[in-house]
Design brief:
- The complex is a heterodimer of chains A (481) and B (488).
- Chain A is built from 15 helices and 17 strands.
- Chain A has 481 residues and is an alpha+beta fold.
- Chain A folds into 3 domains: 5-292, no CATH class; 302-414, no CATH class; 423-480, Orthogonal Bundle (Arc Repressor Mutant, subunit A), CATH 1.10.10.
- In chain A, strand 14 and strand 15 (262-268) form a beta hairpin.
- In chain A, helix 12 (423-436) crosses helix 15.
- In chain A, 40% of the residues are buried.
- With 488 residues, chain B is of the alpha/beta class.
- Chain B has one domain (1-488): Amidase signature (AS) enzymes, CATH 3.90.1300.
- The radius of gyration of chain B is 21 Å and the shape is globular.
- Classes of the chains: A alpha+beta (481), B alpha/beta (488).
- The A-B interface holds A 41, 44-53, 80, 82, 84, 86, 89-92, 139-140, 147, 274, 276-278, 280-284 and B 84, 90, 92, 97, 100, 102-104, 106, 201-206, 208-210, 236-240, 316-317, 320, 323-326, 328-330, 338-339, 343, 363, 366-368, 371, 375.
């Protein structure tokens, strides 16, 4: 009989901190820009150049650590992690190995309606490396590679989870939740596709019931939530197959290939570097005042879980709706600002999650990049509520608002989209329609009640959808009966 | 030869102020002297003739306009070639940086420029500052001006020789484990290593980050104080530099009064020291007593742990500091068919044997399996050594010991060379503890200079300056001109 295996998964997440300048020098932190335009002797690793710690980086790490329920270390320190690679200008990365700035912590996730606490091991500070542009597909197969150190020296936090995740889905949900929390704290852009949030996964399998960890592999190169889920799923299946065939898992680093949908070996444990960690003698330890930590704590915004609970309990939203609306700080902000102007949370939630999100997705935009403001949104929904326009027209108006940024009133006026609720005008029009469709009138009077729908449609067609559908119904029935 | 070139900076400044000489003429004479003796001394790697003359003229113009100038304005000086100088080649005496023109200057270089000093050139040293004889330089050995057969010491042998041979009025060197004091002693000039953090390390090729400290090589204590006034102080670019409110006027420490000072002579450190140097030490102690200080023997038993502790820490830090020289962004690069070969060839051909030895040792003591046994252990012992010194310096104002266990030895003396590393036991404690140390010329043995060393409490440079100044005023043993010897 076959053994049942349980996957054990831990994640390591690198988050680029959105500070004004780099972690150890005064170079500006700007994305893009000409290659090697945001560099100086320090981040280029010139002889004699020395690192000086950016205070904002420390503040951001503490902010993230507090949001992740970590213990903030009163004493932490930087270490050198030595290895040679052309994107690492000093041939050692300044990181925190022995004394990280944040210890422990946890993140609560919800899987199939059940809450689960995922423990964190640590959050530590380090510097990012530059970027290499290979003439071929990799450094080993290229004639030459170009090095750009603009990103080199960017402040990062590395968040290391405990191996508490048990499925690919849990891993994805954890990462989504982590993404939301970090986004709320404002310390990073957390854009996976741009690399400001990067995730590696450690995966092993063990027989169900066993408490011993199996041999793990580390999976790299996932650049979306979906690819993390797929990669973990693939790797679990691969390891299960190896074990079921009586094989052993080799401890190694594997790369996820999103287009092929598989992981492939990058290097084995034997090929791994000895990083020779030791305290960086160019930097002083970080000693934090409890008072400062308290100040940062007091400045934290309401975090996703708390906000979600409030949306459910106070605004009456469903679990699902509250979950989606709080998944991004800006979406939640837009929602709350709209609710403040028009107190119909459910209506607003439906509009945001329906029309708004689909238009954003179709145009590949973030909510803060859209031209529509909460004021405009609230005004549109009020107009709809008063019956001045129909739901269908409202959708047309909204897509025009989305495209042009104009107010709903302006669009309604310019396009003459005001709902026709004038009884006299509608009666005249209905009489004209009835005269033109004697067959339908006969059918209705003969008991075929669905002929009414056709006649309503004709009126709407004639008015380009602007007729008040309720009134059309009422007036038509009065005429026919 | 002009009598000008044996003078100190403050003596020359008087003549400059009275307009009896111009900086331009002084620099010309200095450059002439360099050309005359360099063939035998080889103290310089690069001579910045054009830049020096331009700068001197510039200072002269300012002076003629009546501008207020610093006490070192117009004074010709030299820098060890591990200080980065924007636009002027900086080699670290290594093939790795043979043609490296820095895009920026070290903080201390900028300070010296702001004080209107005139940079004559860059001095020879051990490759990347590693060694004690200045023989491991890409640019050949420097010779001791007091005897061309003798080594000048190292790592900053070129800078010390330049000051001794009157090729520069003063120079700056760096001191990781005695690299400034030992050549100062061998060449008969003053070498001062300040308290760690007093002088910015920014823009100086790193040796061992927690031990490195730059300092002056001068002919007398007044010059030493004047140079310290310029180069010391807070630098926002060096995280370990002193606080902004730490500014001191070192000339105020030039007080000819050492009455009541308590001076300890650590007996363990006299083991293996040339008896003739011990005799000079006793003579120095007698002189100090005569001037009102009180000298007595003290015990510092951790002496035996000093060298291995120093070697492990210096190699560990140094090995990673040297990792940036990989041929990717600047400096020497060899062609390689793949990345690994490129690295191996670049570093294999770019570094000399002494540097490689240091990298291998440092890599070994930091490796995962050796970290605790070697590196971590060395850190702990360093704390003990530091505490032992600090404790002793609570009871005594300073400690007196020789700078070296022998005088400068001959290039051909393989046995002495093999022992050169061991003599560092006398200079390393100051670096391990981060405390200030002064090497003062004190007589000769077999016609070669002897140096006495004074170690003080952290940031209590004042004591060392008072002692140096008092001895200088009351004896003629501290000015050891090589005139009539060597080449001068």
């Amino acid at each position: 009989m076959g053994v049942a295996y349980e996957p054990v998964i831990g994640l390591e997440i690198h988050v680029e901190l959105k500070t004004n300048t780099k972690i150890f020098c005064g170079c500006p932190m700007e994305f893009g820009g000409e290659a090697n335009s945001h560099v100086c002797p320090v981040c280029l690793g010139f002889p004699g150049a020395l690192p000086v710690l950016n205070k904002q980086v420390v503040e951001y790490a503490v902010r993230a650590g507090l949001a992740l329920n970590c213990e903030i270390a009163p004493y932490s320190r930087f270490d050198r992690k030595s290895y040679f690679y052309p994107d690492l200008s000093t041939a050692y990365q300044i990181s925190q190995y022995f004394f990280p700035i944040c210890k422990g912590g946890y993140l609560e996730i919800e899987v199939n309606g059940e809450k689960k606490k995922i423990r964190l091991n640590r959050v530590h500070l380090e510097e990012d490396a530059g970027k290499l542009l290979h003439s071929g597909s990799s450094i080993t197969t290229s004639d030459y590679s170009l090095a750009d150190y603009n990103r080199g020296g960017t402040g990062l936090i590395e968040i290391v989870s405990e191996p508490d995740l048990r499925s690919a889905e849990e891993a994805r949900i954890f990462l989504e939740q982590l993404h939301a929390v970090i986004e709320y704290t404002g310390v990073s852009d957390v854009k996976m596709e741009q690399g400001s949030l990067r995730c590696d996964a450690n995966i092993s399998l063990r027989p169900v019931g066993s408490t011993k960890l199996g041999t793990k592999t580390e999976i790299k190169n996932m650049n979306s939530f979906k690819s993390l889920e797929r990669a973990v799923e693939y790797e679990i299946a691969r390891q299960r197959e190896v074990l079921e065939d009586g094989g052993v898992i080799i401890q190694e680093t594997r790369g996820w290939d999103d287009s092929k949908g598989l992981t492939a070996s990058m290097r084995t444990k034997e090929e791994a570097n000895d990083y020779r960690y030791f305290p960086d003698p160019d930097l002083l330890p970080i000693v934090l005042e409890p008072q400062w930590i308290e100040e940062i704590k007091a400045s934290l915004p309401e975090l996703p879980t708390a906000k979600k609970d409030r949306f459910i309990n106070e605004l009456g939203l469903s679990q699902y709706d509250a979950g989606i609306l709080t998944s991004s700080r800006d979406l939640a902000k837009f929602f709350e600002e709209t609710v403040a102007l028009y107190n119909e949370p459910k209506v607003i939630a439906n509009w945001l999650m329906g029309e708004f999100l689909s238009l954003l997705n179709a145009n590949n935009l973030e909510i803060q990049e859209s031209k529509v403001t909460p004021q405009q949104m609230a005004t549109l929904l009020k107009t709809l509520n008063k019956g001045e326009i129909s739901g269908k027209i409202a959708k047309t108006v909204f897509s025009e608002m989305f495209a042009s940024g104009k107010d709903s009133a302006t669009i309604i006026k310019e396009k003459g989209l005001v709902q026709i609720s004038d009884e006299g005008a509608l009666t005249a029009l209905i009489e004209k329609i009835l005269a033109a469709n004697p067959k339908s009138v006969e059918d209705y009077r003969g008991g075929k009640k669905n002929a009414l729908g056709f006649l309503v449609g004709q009126v709407m067609k004639e008015t380009k959808g602007q007729a008040n559908p309720g009134m059309v119904n009422k007036l038509l029935q009065e005429k026919l009966n | 030869m002009s009598a000008l070139l044996g003078l100190t900076a403050h003596e020359l400044q008087k003549l400059l102020r009275k307009k009896e000489i111009s900086s331009g003429d002084l620099v010309k004479e200095q450059l002439h002297k360099i050309k005359q003796v360099e063939g035998e001394i080889n103290a310089f790697i690069t001579i910045a003739e054009k830049e020096a003359l331009r700068k001197a003229q510039n200072v002269d113009k300012k002076r003629s306009r009546g501008e207020e100038l610093s006490p070192l304005a117009g004074i010709p000086m030299a820098l060890s070639d591990n200080f980065l100088t924007e636009g002027i080649r900086t080699t670290g005496a290594s093939k790795m940086l043979e043609n490296f023109i820095p895009p920026y200057s070290a903080t201390v270089v900028e300070k010296l420029q702001a004080a209107e000093t005139v940079l004559l050139g860059k001095c020879n040293l051990e490759e990347m500052g590693l060694g004690a004889t200045t023989e491991n330089s890409l640019f050949g050995s420097t010779h001791n001006p007091h005897d061309l057969q003798a080594v000048p010491g190292g790592a900053c042998g070129g800078a010390a020789a330049a000051v001794a041979a009157e090729e520069a009025v003063f120079a700056l060197g760096t001191d990781t484990g005695g690299d400034l004091r030992q050549p100062a002693s061998f060449c008969g000039v003053i070498g001062f290593k300040p308290t760690y953090g007093t002088v910015s390390r920014y823009g100086i090729i790193s040796g061992a980050s927690s031990l490195d400290q730059a300092g002056p090589l001068t002919r007398d204590m007044t010059d030493c104080a004047l140079v310290m006034n310029v180069i010391s102080g807070h630098d926002p670019l060096d995280s370990l530099s002193v606080a902004p409110n730490n500014a001191k006027d070192y000339t105020s420490f030039l007080v000819n009064d050492i009455k009541g000072l308590k001076i300890g002579i650590p007996k363990e450190y006299l083991e293996g020291v040339d008896p003739e140097i011990i005799a000079w030490l006793q003579q120095a102690a007698a002189k100090l007593e005569e001037l009102g200080a009180h000298c007595e023997e003290v015990s510092l038993p951790y002496r035996d742990a000093v060298l291995s502790t120093y070697q492990i820490i210096a190699a560990a830090e140094g090995s990673t500091n040297l990792a940036r020289f990989d041929g990717v962004r600047y400096g020497f690069r060899a062609e390689g068919e793949d990345l690994d070969t490129f690295y191996k060839k670049t570093r294999g051909q770019g570094f000399g044997a002494e540097v490689k030895k240091n990298i291998i040792l440092g890599t070994y003591v930091l490796s995962a399996e050796r970290y605790e046994t070697y590196y971590l252990q060395a850190l702990k012992v360093r704390t003990l050594i530091k505490e032992e010194l600090e404790k002793k310096l609570q009871d005594y104002d300073c400690l007196l010991l020789p700078t070296t266990s022998t005088v400068a030895f001959n290039f051909s003396d393989e046995r002495a060379k093999a022992l050169a590393g061991e003599t560092a036991v006398l200079t390393c404690p100051a670096n391990l503890a981060g405390i200030p140390a002064l090497s003062l010329p004190w007589g000769r043995v077999k016609d070669r200079p002897v140096g006495m060393q004074f170690l003080g409490r952290a940031f209590a440079e004042e004591t060392l300056f008072r002692i140096g100044f008092a001895l200088e005023q009351k004896t003629n043993l501290t000015r050891l001109s090589p005139k009539g010897k060597g080449v001068c």
